[in-house]
Write a structure and sequence with these properties.
With 484 residues, this protein is mainly alpha-helical. It is 73% helix and 0% strand. The chain is built from 21 helices and no strands. The longest helix has 32 residues. The chain is globular, with a radius of gyration of 22 Å.
């Protein structure tokens, strides 16, 4: 599909999916900042990425026009709700601050979420300039990232088996602080990858690559026992099969093929470990106590260990009890208590980690976290906005209001990924982890860029109202992050 815009605008706009894709690829496969904890490195690089994205409208008039058009098309009720919500978060931070640095950390959370929302409009503007080229670069890099990470994990499993040592999910995905953080990224990505054959129709290799990458993703989901990811993707796919008919056939066929391949790979690896005697480990590593607590959480409700005979590879994946919360219920109880005691403005953004003696970063439930930290009104506002937008976009997809059958199908595929991530966020930290936030920025920006709007000069002039705050917020975040 060709574009009507100058080639310079196309090149500049393609920087958005390229930079986001490279961020995900490189931070998922190697340590870019040696000597720094992977989580901190991803966060610092996320701030730098956001700052670069906000410079794109400054150097491209076409992106500015599309950016202003998209901002101007936001309904008045939604604009006022967003402004009120982030103002509410700022007020909560001020009211609950215990020191200057404490206030800065709380405000940084509000600033980051605000910057992510504004950056999604920049990504959408770039998508509207380059159209199908944007989609190809974005989905192509997501596929390449999944292929590379999957290959690394298979090599690790083969090496462990050859050396006769224990392998389970805790020693996988070493470029993430915890394997669950990659599972959170998968909730966004796995549904979106079924668009690969549709975007590269002239290449049969795209179909083969789609099945292989999906197979590797499902293998990792099974290997790590990622119950939240599995349930979220399954539930979102069921929603799509019922309510998003233009995307139904692609989601069904490709996901079934990918899951079948992933299950076969997992079965082969599992039986290879079962066939030999794997050592249980002596617990002498520095994290053995933490691992032991997690092993206790992985046991049944009665406190008994899982049935013996299986290797740890099986116990920590399919052998984990599906209905067990892995200790999350006590976090939710504490969060609900905070929301009840501070219903209006909460305990302050990011204060869950500061006020809990256990120093748990988040309660593994984004709606409850908002209710406890920002206040119940903020949590209700976010929930209502999400449900309204879900209904409106679903209705547009069902009525084929995107002007192109492929765009309509792509919108349904992307919405499925967004819904999967939203459902997963009720069981994990999808919305607060840097790699997951960057992935969500790309997926949400692509979907927003598919929305048809009518450009007016008054709407275009509004680009400054999004650009200037975003630039200031991301600059402040980068300076604070580097200092910390």
């Amino acid at each position: 599909m060709s574009t009507k815009h100058p080639e310079s605008a196309t090149v500049i706009s393609l920087a958005a999916p390229t930079l986001i894709g490279l961020y995900l690829l490189l931070t998922s496969t190697r340590a870019l900042i040696p000597g720094i904890w992977p989580y901190d490195a991803k966060r610092i690089l996320q701030f730098a990425l956001l700052l670069i994205l906000f410079l794109i409208p400054l150097v491209s008039r076409r992106v500015r026009a599309e950016f202003g058009d998209l901002l101007g098309a936001v309904p008045g009720w939604l604009r006022m709700t967003a402004l009120a919500l982030f103002g509410w978060g700022g007020a909560s931070a001020l009211l609950n601050a215990q020191s200057g640095m404490h206030l800065a950390n709380s405000l940084s959370e509000v600033a980051l979420l605000s910057a992510l929302v504004l950056a999604a409009f920049i990504v959408a503007a770039c998508r509207r300039v380059t159209l199908r080229r944007f989609d190809q670069v974005a989905i192509g890099l997501l596929a390449f990232t999944g292929l590379t990470v999957g290959a690394q994990e298979l090599i690790g499993v083969i090496a462990a088996h050859h050396a006769g040592v224990e392998f389970n999910f805790r020693v996988s995905l070493l470029h993430f602080s915890w394997p669950r953080f990659y599972n959170q990224v998968q909730s966004w990505v796995v549904p979106a990858l079924v668009a690969l054959p549709m975007l590269f129709t002239r290449s049969r290799l795209a179909s083969v690559l789609c099945i292989i990458v999906l197979g590797l993703h499902w293998y990792i989901i099974l290997m790590t026992g990622a119950r939240g990811t599995f349930v979220a993707i399954t539930a979102a796919s069921m929603f799509a099969l019922v309510f998003l008919s233009p995307a139904r056939s692609r989601l069904l066929s490709w996901q079934i093929a990918g899951f079948a391949l992933g299950a076969l790979v997992f079965a082969a690896v599992m039986f290879s470990f079962e066939s030999g005697d794997q050592p249980a480990g002596d617990g002498s590593d520095p994290q053995s106590k933490q691992h032991e607590r997690i092993r206790d959480a992985d046991r049944g409700a009665g406190g008994k260990a899982l049935a013996g005979g299986e290797s740890s590879f099986f116990r920590q994946s399919l052998g984990r009890p599906m209905v067990h919360t892995s200790g999350r219920t006590w976090m939710w109880t504490v969060t609900i208590r905070d929301a009840r005691e501070h219903p209006l403005f909460g305990i302050g953004p990011m204060n869950y980690v500061c006020t809990r003696p256990e120093r748990i970063g988040h309660p593994h439930n984004f709606p409850l976290q908002l209710a406890a930290e920002w206040g119940i009104p903020a949590a209700l506002a976010v929930s209502v906005v999400f449900l309204v937008l879900l209904y409106q976009v679903s209705r547009r997809i069902r009525l084929n209001r995107y002007g192109d059958s492929e765009d309509t199908a792509l919108a349904g595929i992307l919405l499925t990924g967004i819904l999967a991530a939203a459902l997963h966020a009720c069981l994990s930290g999808v919305m607060v982890m840097p790699a997951s936030q960057v992935t969500g920025l790309l997926i949400c920006g692509m979907l927003l860029g598919l929305q048809p709007t009518g450009r007016t000069e008054s709407a275009i002039s509004t680009w400054r109202w999004g650009f200037i705050p975003g630039l200031l917020l991301t600059t402040g975040l980068l300076l604070l992050g580097a200092h910390e």
